[in-house]
């Protein structure tokens, strides 16, 4: 479970996240939406301790992430908006293997995880390719595979569909749905609900750093446009 309590994040005088209290259950598919600059990225970067609260706290499974950053990072995997921020190795296979190898798993388990993760994003068979020679969409898929291979209790993806074509979106979304059914919490940042409406259990809409709407997609759908969020198609 990820919990924020009265979370405030400031950049200078301005409050990018302003008193946000949320509880995100394991096994839920939560969309964080809102207009540009509403604080989505800043909020989710607190979920695994990448940022430090100016006020309030963030807890992962009851532990304050500021005091337990290592636990937070192994429980909550993050895929950044710019996939190049995620990479730690030169080739596809080495990158996806890095996280599980650090967990001290057996070679067999690591290979299985790499295979499953790459298949989920339709990048299997491309282990030896250099990441810097891939297209933006392919890089995004490798970044997602790297997070999937960690088999975290929560997976947080910031605008994961931006560079992907439809087949890749569908493949990733299918895999996210399966993860959620298996008990993994999934958090997706987006400003277009059409990508995720069929999978989402809950939509949290931020406006100027505050929670403006919070509920199941159907319950919030009519008010999304007010906050610059593209509603799901019906
Ligand atoms: N490193 C930073 N330094 C100063 N201000 C920042 C920084 N990062 C973000 N901001 C500001 O904080 C506010 C929230 O930004 P944030 O990126 O969290 O919003 P967002 O909803 O994710 O936006 P987008 O949809 O454009 O990615 C914005 O006004 C932004 O300009």
Automatic annotation (TrEMBL):
GO terms for cellular component: ATP-binding cassette (ABC) transporter complex. Pfam families: ABC_tran. GO terms for molecular function: ATP binding; ATP hydrolysis activity; ATPase-coupled transmembrane transporter activity. Keywords: ATP-binding, Cell membrane, Membrane, Nucleotide-binding, Translocase, Transport. The keyword Cell wall biogenesis/degradation does not apply. InterPro entries: AAA+_ATPase, ABC_transporter-like_ATP-bd, ABC_transporter-like_CS, ABC_transpr_CbiO/EcfA_su, ECF_ABC_transporter_ATP-bd, P-loop_NTPase. Gene3D superfamilies: P-loop containing nucleotide triphosphate hydrolases (3.40.50.300). It is found in: Cell membrane. SUPFAM superfamilies: P-loop containing nucleoside triphosphate hydrolases. Residues 2-233 form the ABC transporter domain. Transmembrane segments: none annotated. It comes from the Archaea. It is a peripheral membrane protein. The keyword Flavoprotein does not apply. Probably part of an ABC transporter complex. Responsible for energy coupling to the transport system. Belongs to the ABC transporter superfamily. This is ATP-binding cassette domain-containing protein.
